[in-house]
UniProtKB/TrEMBL annotation:
Domain PhoD-like phosphatase metallophosphatase: 261-424
Protein's organism: Marchantia polymorpha
Full protein name: PhoD-like phosphatase metallophosphatase domain-containing protein
Matching InterPro entries: Metallo-depent_PP-like, PhoD-like_MPP, PhoD-like_sf
Pfam families in alphabetical order: PhoD
Length: 455
Protein backbone atom coordinates (compact mmCIF):
# COMPACT_ATOMS: atom_id res chain seq x y z
CA UNK A 1 0.00 0.00 0.00
CA UNK A 2 2.98 2.30 0.50
CA UNK A 3 4.21 2.41 -3.11
CA UNK A 4 3.37 5.51 -5.18
CA UNK A 5 0.97 5.37 -8.11
CA UNK A 6 3.61 6.74 -10.44
CA UNK A 7 7.10 5.68 -11.50
CA UNK A 8 9.40 7.92 -9.49
CA UNK A 9 12.38 7.16 -11.72
CA UNK A 10 10.50 8.51 -14.73
CA UNK A 11 8.76 11.35 -12.89
CA UNK A 12 11.02 12.33 -9.98
CA UNK A 13 9.23 15.68 -9.56
CA UNK A 14 5.82 14.08 -9.03
CA UNK A 15 4.30 15.09 -5.68
CA UNK A 16 4.14 11.44 -4.57
CA UNK A 17 7.90 11.20 -5.05
CA UNK A 18 8.97 14.28 -3.12
CA UNK A 19 9.59 14.15 0.60
CA UNK A 20 12.31 14.72 3.17
CA UNK A 21 14.37 11.57 3.56
CA UNK A 22 14.31 10.07 7.04
CA UNK A 23 13.99 6.67 8.75
CA UNK A 24 10.42 6.26 7.42
CA UNK A 25 10.83 7.81 3.97
CA UNK A 26 14.19 6.46 2.89
CA UNK A 27 13.97 7.56 -0.76
CA UNK A 28 11.53 8.83 -3.40
CA UNK A 29 9.85 5.46 -3.77
CA UNK A 30 8.86 5.40 -0.09
CA UNK A 31 7.43 8.90 0.33
CA UNK A 32 3.95 7.47 0.95
CA UNK A 33 4.96 5.12 3.77
CA UNK A 34 2.50 5.61 6.61
CA UNK A 35 0.08 7.66 4.47
CA UNK A 36 -3.28 6.23 5.52
CA UNK A 37 -5.34 8.21 2.98
CA UNK A 38 -3.26 6.86 0.11
CA UNK A 39 -3.45 3.33 1.53
CA UNK A 40 -7.24 3.61 1.81
CA UNK A 41 -7.51 4.64 -1.84
CA UNK A 42 -5.36 1.72 -3.01
CA UNK A 43 -7.27 -0.75 -0.85
CA UNK A 44 -10.63 0.45 -2.18
CA UNK A 45 -9.37 -0.06 -5.74
CA UNK A 46 -8.29 -3.59 -4.85
CA UNK A 47 -11.63 -4.46 -3.25
CA UNK A 48 -13.40 -3.34 -6.44
CA UNK A 49 -11.06 -5.29 -8.71
CA UNK A 50 -13.16 -7.73 -10.82
CA UNK A 51 -10.68 -10.58 -10.32
CA UNK A 52 -10.71 -10.10 -6.55
CA UNK A 53 -14.50 -9.93 -6.49
CA UNK A 54 -14.67 -13.15 -8.50
CA UNK A 55 -12.34 -14.77 -5.95
CA UNK A 56 -14.54 -13.63 -3.06
CA UNK A 57 -17.70 -14.88 -4.80
CA UNK A 58 -16.08 -18.30 -5.28
CA UNK A 59 -14.90 -18.51 -1.68
CA UNK A 60 -18.10 -17.03 -0.33
CA UNK A 61 -21.10 -17.87 -2.57
CA UNK A 62 -23.44 -16.89 0.27
CA UNK A 63 -21.78 -13.51 0.87
CA UNK A 64 -25.09 -11.65 0.49
CA UNK A 65 -26.33 -13.52 3.56
CA UNK A 66 -23.52 -12.07 5.69
CA UNK A 67 -25.18 -8.66 5.88
CA UNK A 68 -24.22 -5.32 4.39
CA UNK A 69 -21.13 -3.17 4.83
CA UNK A 70 -17.93 -4.90 5.94
CA UNK A 71 -18.79 -8.60 5.75
CA UNK A 72 -16.83 -11.00 7.94
CA UNK A 73 -14.99 -13.13 5.37
CA UNK A 74 -13.97 -15.68 8.01
CA UNK A 75 -17.63 -16.83 8.03
CA UNK A 76 -17.62 -17.76 4.35
CA UNK A 77 -18.25 -21.35 3.26
CA UNK A 78 -14.56 -21.31 2.33
CA UNK A 79 -13.19 -18.95 5.00
CA UNK A 80 -10.89 -16.10 4.00
CA UNK A 81 -8.47 -15.18 6.79
CA UNK A 82 -5.12 -13.45 6.79
CA UNK A 83 -2.58 -11.20 8.41
CA UNK A 84 -0.34 -8.47 7.15
CA UNK A 85 3.30 -8.03 6.28
CA UNK A 86 5.24 -4.85 5.68
CA UNK A 87 3.51 -3.39 2.60
CA UNK A 88 0.04 -4.21 3.96
CA UNK A 89 1.21 -2.49 7.14
CA UNK A 90 2.06 0.50 4.89
CA UNK A 91 5.81 0.60 5.49
CA UNK A 92 8.46 -1.54 3.82
CA UNK A 93 10.39 -3.50 6.47
CA UNK A 94 8.25 -1.66 9.01
CA UNK A 95 8.25 -1.99 12.78
CA UNK A 96 6.34 -0.72 15.82
CA UNK A 97 7.35 2.91 15.22
CA UNK A 98 4.88 3.41 12.34
CA UNK A 99 2.84 6.61 12.85
CA UNK A 100 -0.95 6.14 12.60
CA UNK A 101 -0.65 2.37 12.92
CA UNK A 102 -4.01 2.17 14.71
CA UNK A 103 -5.67 3.79 11.68
CA UNK A 104 -3.83 1.41 9.38
CA UNK A 105 -5.01 -1.52 11.49
CA UNK A 106 -8.64 -0.40 11.24
CA UNK A 107 -8.30 -0.07 7.47
CA UNK A 108 -6.92 -3.58 7.13
CA UNK A 109 -9.43 -5.25 9.45
CA UNK A 110 -12.33 -3.46 7.75
CA UNK A 111 -11.28 -5.06 4.46
CA UNK A 112 -11.65 -8.52 6.03
CA UNK A 113 -14.91 -7.58 7.71
CA UNK A 114 -13.57 -8.25 11.19
CA UNK A 115 -16.41 -7.39 13.63
CA UNK A 116 -16.24 -4.08 15.47
CA UNK A 117 -16.22 -5.85 18.85
CA UNK A 118 -13.35 -8.21 17.97
CA UNK A 119 -10.36 -8.22 20.36
CA UNK A 120 -8.20 -7.67 17.26
CA UNK A 121 -9.47 -4.08 17.20
CA UNK A 122 -8.39 -3.28 20.76
CA UNK A 123 -6.01 -0.34 21.09
CA UNK A 124 -2.29 -1.13 21.39
CA UNK A 125 -2.91 -4.70 20.25
CA UNK A 126 -1.75 -6.33 17.04
CA UNK A 127 -4.07 -8.23 14.69
CA UNK A 128 -2.94 -11.72 15.78
CA UNK A 129 -5.69 -14.34 16.03
CA UNK A 130 -6.53 -18.04 15.92
CA UNK A 131 -9.09 -19.45 13.49
CA UNK A 132 -10.16 -23.11 13.53
CA UNK A 133 -11.08 -24.96 10.34
CA UNK A 134 -13.35 -28.03 10.59
CA UNK A 135 -14.31 -26.85 14.06
CA UNK A 136 -16.35 -29.48 15.87
CA UNK A 137 -15.12 -32.35 13.69
CA UNK A 138 -13.04 -34.30 16.19
CA UNK A 139 -9.65 -35.35 14.89
CA UNK A 140 -9.86 -33.23 11.74
CA UNK A 141 -9.49 -29.73 13.14
CA UNK A 142 -6.89 -27.35 11.75
CA UNK A 143 -5.87 -24.42 13.93
CA UNK A 144 -4.71 -21.41 11.91
CA UNK A 145 -2.55 -18.99 13.91
CA UNK A 146 -2.37 -15.54 12.30
CA UNK A 147 0.74 -13.81 13.65
CA UNK A 148 1.24 -10.04 13.65
CA UNK A 149 4.95 -9.43 13.10
CA UNK A 150 4.84 -5.66 12.53
CA UNK A 151 2.74 -3.94 15.19
CA UNK A 152 5.03 -4.89 18.11
CA UNK A 153 8.28 -5.45 16.19
CA UNK A 154 11.44 -3.75 17.44
CA UNK A 155 13.79 -2.04 15.03
CA UNK A 156 16.48 -4.40 13.77
CA UNK A 157 19.14 -5.36 16.34
CA UNK A 158 22.22 -3.13 16.16
CA UNK A 159 24.62 -5.91 15.18
CA UNK A 160 22.61 -6.85 12.06
CA UNK A 161 23.26 -3.60 10.16
CA UNK A 162 25.96 -1.72 12.10
CA UNK A 163 28.83 -2.52 9.73
CA UNK A 164 26.73 -1.87 6.63
CA UNK A 165 25.49 1.46 7.94
CA UNK A 166 28.85 2.69 9.25
CA UNK A 167 30.91 1.66 6.22
CA UNK A 168 28.47 1.87 3.31
CA UNK A 169 25.31 3.94 3.79
CA UNK A 170 26.15 6.69 6.29
CA UNK A 171 29.29 7.95 4.44
CA UNK A 172 27.41 8.23 1.13
CA UNK A 173 24.29 10.48 1.04
CA UNK A 174 23.32 8.94 -2.30
CA UNK A 175 22.85 5.49 -0.84
CA UNK A 176 19.30 4.15 -0.62
CA UNK A 177 19.54 3.52 3.14
CA UNK A 178 21.51 6.68 4.02
CA UNK A 179 18.80 8.42 6.08
CA UNK A 180 17.60 5.18 7.63
CA UNK A 181 21.14 4.26 8.65
CA UNK A 182 21.84 7.68 10.18
CA UNK A 183 18.86 7.15 12.44
CA UNK A 184 19.84 3.51 13.08
CA UNK A 185 23.33 4.52 14.27
CA UNK A 186 22.86 8.05 15.61
CA UNK A 187 19.11 8.54 16.15
CA UNK A 188 16.74 7.37 18.85
CA UNK A 189 15.68 9.13 22.02
CA UNK A 190 19.22 9.26 23.42
CA UNK A 191 21.06 9.98 20.16
CA UNK A 192 22.89 6.65 20.38
CA UNK A 193 20.92 4.95 17.63
CA UNK A 194 17.38 3.68 17.13
CA UNK A 195 18.62 0.13 16.60
CA UNK A 196 17.56 -2.47 19.16
CA UNK A 197 20.40 -3.03 21.66
CA UNK A 198 18.76 -5.64 23.87
CA UNK A 199 20.15 -8.74 22.14
CA UNK A 200 23.70 -7.38 22.40
CA UNK A 201 23.21 -6.31 26.01
CA UNK A 202 21.56 -9.49 27.28
CA UNK A 203 21.85 -12.43 24.83
CA UNK A 204 25.40 -11.68 23.64
CA UNK A 205 26.51 -9.86 26.80
CA UNK A 206 25.16 -10.56 30.27
CA UNK A 207 24.12 -14.14 29.42
CA UNK A 208 27.66 -15.08 28.31
CA UNK A 209 29.27 -14.06 31.60
CA UNK A 210 30.05 -17.16 33.67
CA UNK A 211 29.33 -15.24 36.85
CA UNK A 212 25.67 -14.90 35.84
CA UNK A 213 24.93 -18.61 35.35
CA UNK A 214 23.66 -19.01 38.90
CA UNK A 215 21.44 -15.93 38.80
CA UNK A 216 17.78 -16.77 39.42
CA UNK A 217 16.82 -14.77 36.31
CA UNK A 218 19.32 -16.46 33.98
CA UNK A 219 16.84 -18.97 32.52
CA UNK A 220 14.14 -16.35 31.94
CA UNK A 221 16.62 -13.94 30.33
CA UNK A 222 19.01 -16.30 28.54
CA UNK A 223 17.34 -19.59 27.58
CA UNK A 224 14.97 -19.19 24.58
CA UNK A 225 13.92 -22.83 24.96
CA UNK A 226 12.48 -22.15 28.42
CA UNK A 227 8.75 -21.59 28.98
CA UNK A 228 9.63 -18.59 31.16
CA UNK A 229 11.88 -16.92 28.58
CA UNK A 230 11.30 -13.18 28.29
CA UNK A 231 8.24 -13.25 30.53
CA UNK A 232 6.25 -10.03 31.18
CA UNK A 233 7.77 -7.76 33.80
CA UNK A 234 11.36 -8.72 33.04
CA UNK A 235 13.33 -5.67 31.93
CA UNK A 236 16.89 -4.38 31.68
CA UNK A 237 18.34 -2.54 34.68
CA UNK A 238 19.88 0.65 33.28
CA UNK A 239 22.51 0.75 36.03
CA UNK A 240 23.80 -2.83 35.83
CA UNK A 241 22.86 -3.70 32.26
CA UNK A 242 21.37 -6.99 33.45
CA UNK A 243 17.80 -8.29 33.74
CA UNK A 244 15.58 -7.31 36.62
CA UNK A 245 11.98 -7.82 37.71
CA UNK A 246 10.64 -4.35 37.18
CA UNK A 247 9.03 -2.54 40.09
CA UNK A 248 7.29 0.86 40.31
CA UNK A 249 10.51 2.65 41.29
CA UNK A 250 13.07 0.60 39.38
CA UNK A 251 15.47 2.29 36.97
CA UNK A 252 14.72 0.16 33.91
CA UNK A 253 13.98 0.34 30.22
CA UNK A 254 10.28 0.78 31.09
CA UNK A 255 8.40 -2.06 29.42
CA UNK A 256 10.90 -2.80 26.67
CA UNK A 257 11.71 -6.34 27.85
CA UNK A 258 15.03 -8.18 27.52
CA UNK A 259 15.04 -9.28 23.87
CA UNK A 260 14.55 -7.66 20.48
CA UNK A 261 10.97 -8.59 19.71
CA UNK A 262 9.17 -9.61 16.54
CA UNK A 263 5.72 -10.38 17.92
CA UNK A 264 5.99 -8.78 21.36
CA UNK A 265 5.71 -10.18 24.86
CA UNK A 266 1.89 -10.36 25.01
CA UNK A 267 1.56 -12.10 21.66
CA UNK A 268 4.33 -14.53 22.63
CA UNK A 269 2.47 -15.44 25.81
CA UNK A 270 -0.80 -15.80 23.87
CA UNK A 271 0.80 -18.02 21.22
CA UNK A 272 2.53 -20.24 23.77
CA UNK A 273 -0.73 -20.75 25.65
CA UNK A 274 -2.85 -21.37 22.54
CA UNK A 275 -0.34 -23.85 21.10
CA UNK A 276 -0.27 -25.76 24.36
CA UNK A 277 -4.08 -25.99 24.51
CA UNK A 278 -4.61 -26.86 20.85
CA UNK A 279 -5.81 -30.41 20.13
CA UNK A 280 -5.81 -29.93 16.35
CA UNK A 281 -3.71 -32.53 14.47
CA UNK A 282 -2.42 -29.76 12.20
CA UNK A 283 -1.41 -26.24 13.16
CA UNK A 284 -0.80 -23.65 10.44
CA UNK A 285 1.37 -20.71 11.52
CA UNK A 286 0.74 -17.78 9.18
CA UNK A 287 3.87 -15.63 9.29
CA UNK A 288 4.64 -12.62 7.10
CA UNK A 289 8.37 -13.26 7.56
CA UNK A 290 10.10 -16.63 7.00
CA UNK A 291 10.62 -18.26 10.39
CA UNK A 292 13.87 -19.88 9.21
CA UNK A 293 15.84 -19.00 6.10
CA UNK A 294 19.61 -18.54 6.12
CA UNK A 295 21.68 -18.85 9.31
CA UNK A 296 24.96 -17.71 7.71
CA UNK A 297 26.39 -14.28 6.93
CA UNK A 298 26.39 -13.13 3.32
CA UNK A 299 27.94 -10.27 1.34
CA UNK A 300 25.48 -7.37 1.28
CA UNK A 301 27.88 -4.82 -0.23
CA UNK A 302 30.65 -5.81 -2.63
CA UNK A 303 34.26 -4.78 -2.11
CA UNK A 304 35.45 -1.45 -3.48
CA UNK A 305 38.95 -0.07 -3.93
CA UNK A 306 38.64 1.96 -0.75
CA UNK A 307 37.12 -0.79 1.45
CA UNK A 308 36.59 -4.56 1.65
CA UNK A 309 33.21 -6.21 1.18
CA UNK A 310 30.63 -5.87 3.96
CA UNK A 311 28.58 -8.76 5.35
CA UNK A 312 25.05 -8.83 6.73
CA UNK A 313 23.48 -11.51 8.91
CA UNK A 314 19.89 -11.39 7.64
CA UNK A 315 17.36 -9.75 5.34
CA UNK A 316 14.11 -8.68 7.03
CA UNK A 317 13.11 -11.96 8.63
CA UNK A 318 13.43 -13.91 11.87
CA UNK A 319 17.14 -14.52 11.26
CA UNK A 320 17.65 -10.87 12.31
CA UNK A 321 16.12 -11.62 15.70
CA UNK A 322 17.91 -14.81 16.75
CA UNK A 323 16.75 -15.11 20.42
CA UNK A 324 13.13 -14.40 19.44
CA UNK A 325 13.51 -16.85 16.55
CA UNK A 326 14.85 -19.64 18.76
CA UNK A 327 12.04 -19.11 21.24
CA UNK A 328 9.42 -19.32 18.48
CA UNK A 329 10.96 -22.42 16.89
CA UNK A 330 11.08 -24.28 20.19
CA UNK A 331 7.51 -23.29 21.07
CA UNK A 332 6.34 -24.57 17.68
CA UNK A 333 8.26 -27.83 17.96
CA UNK A 334 6.97 -28.49 21.49
CA UNK A 335 3.32 -28.02 20.47
CA UNK A 336 1.17 -31.16 20.26
CA UNK A 337 0.35 -32.18 16.69
CA UNK A 338 2.16 -31.10 13.52
CA UNK A 339 3.23 -27.56 12.64
CA UNK A 340 3.46 -26.04 9.16
CA UNK A 341 4.52 -22.42 8.70
CA UNK A 342 2.88 -20.51 5.83
CA UNK A 343 4.93 -17.52 4.73
CA UNK A 344 5.92 -15.29 1.81
CA UNK A 345 7.89 -12.04 1.34
CA UNK A 346 10.87 -13.22 -0.76
CA UNK A 347 9.24 -13.13 -4.22
CA UNK A 348 9.73 -16.81 -4.98
CA UNK A 349 8.21 -20.03 -3.63
CA UNK A 350 9.64 -23.12 -1.96
CA UNK A 351 9.19 -25.80 0.70
CA UNK A 352 11.66 -26.09 3.56
CA UNK A 353 11.96 -28.45 6.52
CA UNK A 354 13.87 -27.76 9.73
CA UNK A 355 14.84 -31.22 10.99
CA UNK A 356 16.02 -32.32 14.44
CA UNK A 357 19.37 -34.06 14.77
CA UNK A 358 22.73 -33.17 13.28
CA UNK A 359 22.25 -30.75 10.37
CA UNK A 360 24.26 -27.88 8.87
CA UNK A 361 22.07 -25.43 10.76
CA UNK A 362 21.81 -27.30 14.10
CA UNK A 363 24.19 -24.95 15.93
CA UNK A 364 22.62 -21.74 14.67
CA UNK A 365 19.05 -22.81 15.47
CA UNK A 366 19.76 -25.01 18.52
CA UNK A 367 17.64 -27.62 16.74
CA UNK A 368 19.49 -30.87 17.52
CA UNK A 369 17.09 -31.92 20.27
CA UNK A 370 13.83 -30.63 18.77
CA UNK A 371 11.11 -33.26 19.31
CA UNK A 372 9.86 -33.00 15.72
CA UNK A 373 10.44 -31.27 12.40
CA UNK A 374 8.95 -27.90 11.44
CA UNK A 375 7.73 -27.47 7.86
CA UNK A 376 7.60 -24.14 6.03
CA UNK A 377 5.81 -23.34 2.76
CA UNK A 378 6.77 -20.03 1.18
CA UNK A 379 4.43 -18.93 -1.61
CA UNK A 380 5.46 -15.44 -2.59
CA UNK A 381 3.67 -13.83 -5.48
CA UNK A 382 0.57 -14.51 -7.59
CA UNK A 383 1.58 -11.97 -10.24
CA UNK A 384 4.70 -10.99 -12.16
CA UNK A 385 4.70 -7.70 -10.23
CA UNK A 386 6.03 -9.53 -7.20
CA UNK A 387 7.17 -12.92 -8.52
CA UNK A 388 9.41 -12.53 -11.54
CA UNK A 389 11.25 -15.43 -13.14
CA UNK A 390 14.80 -15.62 -11.81
CA UNK A 391 17.78 -18.02 -11.82
CA UNK A 392 19.06 -20.05 -8.89
CA UNK A 393 21.68 -17.66 -7.59
CA UNK A 394 22.41 -15.43 -4.60
CA UNK A 395 19.88 -15.58 -1.80
CA UNK A 396 17.68 -17.97 -3.80
CA UNK A 397 20.19 -20.79 -3.24
CA UNK A 398 19.44 -22.86 -0.13
CA UNK A 399 22.97 -23.32 1.21
CA UNK A 400 21.74 -24.42 4.64
CA UNK A 401 20.06 -27.61 3.40
CA UNK A 402 16.41 -26.95 4.26
CA UNK A 403 14.90 -27.90 0.87
CA UNK A 404 14.20 -31.66 0.64
CA UNK A 405 14.67 -31.67 -3.15
CA UNK A 406 17.93 -29.74 -3.31
CA UNK A 407 19.35 -26.25 -2.98
CA UNK A 408 17.70 -24.97 -6.18
CA UNK A 409 14.26 -26.52 -5.60
CA UNK A 410 12.21 -23.34 -5.77
CA UNK A 411 9.67 -21.76 -8.11
CA UNK A 412 10.21 -18.33 -9.59
CA UNK A 413 7.35 -16.56 -11.31
CA UNK A 414 3.70 -16.51 -10.20
CA UNK A 415 2.78 -19.36 -7.86
CA UNK A 416 0.64 -20.23 -4.85
CA UNK A 417 0.70 -22.72 -2.01
CA UNK A 418 -1.82 -25.47 -1.28
CA UNK A 419 -2.24 -28.18 1.36
CA UNK A 420 -4.31 -31.26 0.55
CA UNK A 421 -5.22 -33.59 3.43
CA UNK A 422 -6.55 -37.14 3.18
CA UNK A 423 -8.19 -37.60 6.55
CA UNK A 424 -9.39 -41.11 5.67
CA UNK A 425 -5.96 -42.75 5.49
CA UNK A 426 -4.55 -44.21 8.73
CA UNK A 427 -1.53 -41.91 8.43
CA UNK A 428 -3.67 -38.81 7.67
CA UNK A 429 -1.46 -37.69 4.79
CA UNK A 430 -0.98 -33.99 4.13
CA UNK A 431 0.44 -32.93 0.77
CA UNK A 432 2.30 -29.62 0.95
CA UNK A 433 2.36 -28.12 -2.53
CA UNK A 434 3.59 -25.21 -4.60
CA UNK A 435 1.53 -24.74 -7.77
CA UNK A 436 2.37 -22.47 -10.67
CA UNK A 437 0.08 -19.85 -12.22
CA UNK A 438 -1.75 -22.59 -14.16
CA UNK A 439 -2.40 -24.70 -11.06
CA UNK A 440 0.21 -27.33 -11.94
CA UNK A 441 2.02 -28.88 -8.96
CA UNK A 442 5.70 -27.93 -9.23
CA UNK A 443 6.90 -28.84 -5.73
CA UNK A 444 5.39 -31.30 -3.26
CA UNK A 445 6.26 -32.82 0.11
CA UNK A 446 4.02 -35.30 1.90
CA UNK A 447 3.67 -35.32 5.67
CA UNK A 448 2.19 -37.96 7.98
CA UNK A 449 0.04 -36.12 10.50
CA UNK A 450 -0.07 -39.14 12.82
CA UNK A 451 3.71 -38.96 13.37
CA UNK A 452 4.72 -35.56 11.93
CA UNK A 453 7.23 -37.28 9.67
CA UNK A 454 7.80 -37.03 5.91
CA UNK A 455 6.68 -39.83 3.59
Amino acid sequence: MDWPDTNCKEKPEHFECNCTRDWLHVNRQTCLAGDVAHARKKLEIQLQNPDYQQFVEYMCPDIKNLGSGHRDLSLCARPIVGTWDDHDYNWQDGDKRLPNKEQQKKLYLDAFGVPSNSPRREKDRGIYWKHTLNEGTKGKEIDVFLLDERFHRDNKPCETRREFCEKVAVPDPKKYKHAWCKDFIFGGADGKGSCCRKDEQIWAGWCKENSQLGDDLWEAACDPTSETYGFPGLEIDISSGGPIRAGPNSNTTHGEGVLCEVIGVNQRAWLQDELRKSEAPLKLIVSGSPVFNNPEEFVCSKALKRRPSVNCTCFDDYDCYRPAQLNLLHNLAQAPGCVVVLTGDFHFSDIKVLQPGSQKYSGAYDSFHLPRAIYQIMASGLTTDTAQHAPCDGYRIDKAGFRPEGECAFVSGPAFGMIEIDWDTPEQLAKLQIRDEFGVVTLESTLRLDKCTPV
